[in-house]
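cron nightly-structures :: item 1 of 1
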Amino acid sequence: MKDWLSASEIAAEQLPDMPRTKMGVNFLLEREGWNDRQTQARPRAARGGGMEYHISLLPVLAQVAYQQKHIVIQLPVKPAKPAPDTSLTARAQLERDARLAIVAAFEKFSHNLKLGYTTRVQVFTDKFNAGSLNIDPWVIEIIPSLSKRSLARWQSQKRDGRINALGHDPAQARKGTGVLDTANGGAVRAFMLAAIAAQPHLSGEAVQTQVRYEFGDTLKVLSKGVETDISMPPVRTFQHAIKRLRESHKIELIALTNPDQYRSHKAPAGVGMLRHITEPNQLWQIDASPVDALCTDGRHAVYACIDIATRRTVWLLSKTPRASAVALLIRKAILEWGVPDVVKTDNGSDFVARDTQRLFASLGIEAETSDAYSPQQKGHVERVIKTFQHDLGPLLPGFVGHSVTDRKAIESRKSFANRLGESDADVFGATLSGPQLQKHIDDWANTIYQHKPHAGLKGSTPFGAALASSKVVRRVDERALDLLLMPVAGSDGQRIVTKLGIRIDGYHYLAPTIMPETAVFVRMDPNDAGLAYAFAQDGAEFLAEIVCPELSGMHPADLVRAAKEIRAELLDERTRDVKAGMKRLAKGPSLIERALEVKRRDMPNVIPLPKREEAHSTAQIEAAIAAMSEKLNPTRELTPREAAEHRRMIEEMRVEDERELNARFETMRQDRLDEVEAERTAHLPKDANIVALPETPKERYRRAVAIRKLVDA
């Protein structure tokens, strides 16, 4: 979207409250004196000349219509290959990006709109909800409607630096609120963790059985402040819960269930026209250029930073263009001026490097890049570099000129014979080293340039413009700034903690307070090769200082021993409750006894009735019986005594079987008689003086049968 329009372009837009022809627009701008407003009118840079005007000159209704027509709500362009963000789920990242896109669109929509904040919010939300803005489909899919309160909240979160707070994942919001996570005040979850630590091969059904043994068939759950009893969840719920426990307590479970594996794999081991910018630090521009002078150690590049509102400058020499030089320039400028709102650069590799982008993000600075091959988009810094080269360059020993022609003219001061075999430094008379040249540059900027009247400041000096401002300066602690400027490990600073620690450039840095398999972001201490700093993967949380025994000068064995002690204390603290649960399991019944006890409760209370039986026989069965009879009963005839004993034993077995069968039927009949008697006497009054009720015929029959059985016995 263009912020500057010519008269013909304004007419072509067909905006409300504005003429629809170029002539009409020209009459309007002459009548209202647009050409006299120097900050909002400028000559056109294109062919043909003429003037162009900032959209803030348009009436409010015209501005709103123009913004509605051209503003696009979409995700801003990100740096190439950004570091992976694992602090949010994919769904939460989409939610965050959509909200950031809407906030950015609103800020651009209301940038120059002459309306109150409440009115701007109302207009923007109405346009959004009506679908009259150019909105990417994925944004509409994530956020179909927008309220004023939500927009204000998102702006506040972005302003406070809580970008990740804009991401919301409903699934993550429910995490840790499951039935088994909260049942019995968390005791069920702790018991399950102890059970799978005591026996890792337990299935979901087996764990459910142990929970039923420990807590019964119901669980207590707190719902809306009221404790209620619920039935035992199904096996599938236990399977999901066990899977989550094994993922969230992976290292602790390995240490408890397989100490050898933990010791082998996880334990620590020893090895243009910006006049609308009126406040200081509102916008900086930075760029770099080779210095038009040689030093005794070669030619250096100079990095320049200019504050657009005050025209103050900060300079830094570097042997070669690199991202670390950009970081040091930003550090130097922040310590002198404070933190800026926006920094604009070109697309040089040192400016768009991940280290530079990471630094801007950490400091809360918005980074803007100009289009490729468009130096005019950052003309202020380009111009001040030219001022530096032409004002200071000729005064320096070793000056080589501003062009090839200048260089040849300076070389020609000596004949070819005289300069044959000399180095460039000798030919051009270079006598300054890099640090000496840096001091001269700083003195020139502080003594000459900042006290020189500037046309862009209406005759004021950069020093006076900065002094006249009443804007609050945002300061950063120098120690924290130094830490953010420290180089990262490798190319992106991302590392995974292993049993050996964190590997950086072939060395291992011990991190006993960080569990293995944790993803970290590492910064190196430039003053101590054996020291580094580990942060969370997004860099927003400091985790620990990490030390390399080989580079720190410490004895490796002592450092490893201390790391093991620290890890042991940390692991003991994390597994204390689990060990207590394992001890309780060991003292009570075994797991199989618990399982059998629970399953017995599930058995139906039914006695099977005897079934009719008949003998089954085949030729083979008969042959087998004959063989066994021959073996057990010899073919000789039994004596009368043996035959009588044999008959007695068979009769006893028959009587015993008959007695057992009769006892079963009698028990069942007696139970039924008791039920009938209870039904018969249920209506009778309950008199405490009654000793016995009249005997019924059925009772007399039952008594007679009992007496007969006693006589027979």
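cron nightly-structures :: done
The first strand starts at residue 4 and ends at 6.
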